[in-house]
TrEMBL record:
Reactions catalysed according to its record: L-aspartate + ATP = 4-phospho-L-aspartate + ADP
Residues engaged in binding ATP: K7, F8, G9, G10, T174, D175, Y180, R185, K210, V211
The protein's name in its UniProt record: Aspartokinase
Species of provenance: Sulfitobacter sabulilitoris
Pathway(s): Amino-acid biosynthesis; L-lysine biosynthesis via DAP pathway; (S)-tetrahydrodipicolinate from L-aspartate: step 1/4; Amino-acid biosynthesis; L-threonine biosynthesis; L-threonine from L-aspartate: step 1/5; Amino-acid biosynthesis; L-methionine biosynthesis via de novo pathway; L-homoserine from L-aspartate: step 1/3
EC number of the protein: 2.7.2.4
Keywords, alphabetical: Amino-acid biosynthesis, ATP-binding, Kinase, Lysine biosynthesis, Nucleotide-binding, Transferase
Amino acid sequence: MPVLVMKFGGTSVATPDRIRRAAKRVGVEVSKGYDVIVIVSAMAGKTNELVGWVDETSPMYDAREYDAVVSSGENVTAGLMALTLQSMDIPARSWQGWQVPVKTTSAHSSARIEDIPPENIRAKFAQGMQVAVVAGFQGVSPEGRITTLGRGGSDTTAVAFAAAFEAERCDIYTDVDGVYTTDPRITSKARKLDRIAFEEMLELASLGAKVLQTRSVELAMRYKVKLRVLSSFEEQSDTAGTLVCDEEEIMESNVVAGVAFSRDEAKMTLVSVADRPGIAATIFTALSEAGVNVDMIVQNIAEEGRTDMTWSCPVDQVLRAQKAMEASKAEGVINYHDLIADKDVAKVSVVGIGMRSHTGVAAKMFRVLSGEGINIKVITTSEIKISVLIDRKYMELAVQALHDAFELEKAA
Ligand code: ADP
Ligand code: ASP
Ligand code: MG
């Protein structure tokens, strides 16, 4: 029998009633003759609550216990979904990550899936089980401990199962009816895309569009998984939602496909460090060893052998970065006058594979921002994206202005 993977996010399983609605969708696919693997998230808000409890109990927590607590939300929804399906006379069974097993690295709280042996679930399908309900977001480390895959990780669970079982498709059911030109919560002019290229989706996800976890898009691209994003609240046809696919499968597209943003950024500047070979290596090794995810980097022009070094990182890692720099200064490996942290910045990015062949996108982006009186603090570019760091209070305005200026509400 062909296998279909269906993933339901937090809002889609937020209550027993919503679980019943989702189970009905599963029933429709079962009746078409699929063996279905359902991946569930925790109920909406549950994971945040669990993270809050861990922080309250132990701010400098042991990541293994964080995972033990935070993975539990998915166990509840997996069991409830299996019960609901059974009550509809659909043979279903729930599976926690370790039972499958979903084998991951031991990088607790951000583990990567290494292998999903399909034998156990396949054997159950052969015995008549029609739906395997798998708790998303979780796996098991080589040491036999529960791991989690990072926030939004159920998307990655879903794509990894689709790859492991050579599924016909991986459907991601969520609270929006597809991937939009930007988060529809920021502007009502956001337009749903029928298709989006893997490369563009990868950039949008990594630049903040949380509709798919970045790693899930990477996996789908690598294993050629047919990935679709659609709403769990609407009646569905086979062409509903957004298909994430190879760029060759897209006929027409705008130069800019979408605008992404990341709200909780910080900009840090080391003032007056020695301008000598190895200084960047020393600074960024210390930051990386402290677990700081550095994003943008700018080194200023040197004067009299001294320079400033600026980087951006998630705002909740500022303290860690400060500690790392102070420790390096105390050890005498880095000498600087001051460390300035600006915690009120956000990153806004425009993304599109059309930028490979079109010039002037950056100039236009900067003109639009300046027209709104928004000052740009840091800029980075790649072949298919341009990102700027700006004051957080202008983030929505910037997204809306860019969406208008690049006419994203209109299809190509
Ligand atoms: P789930 O709980 O189903 O995994 P998420 O909250 O993780 O859902 O992701 C869906 C949300 O992603 C939407 O409600 C929307 O606000 C947000 N989002 C951000 N960028 C986009 C985009 N470009 N297209 C669609 N949704 C987006
Ligand atoms: N429940 C987890 C989270 O909120 C995983 C997921 O929903 O994808 O991050
Ligand atoms: Mg999500």
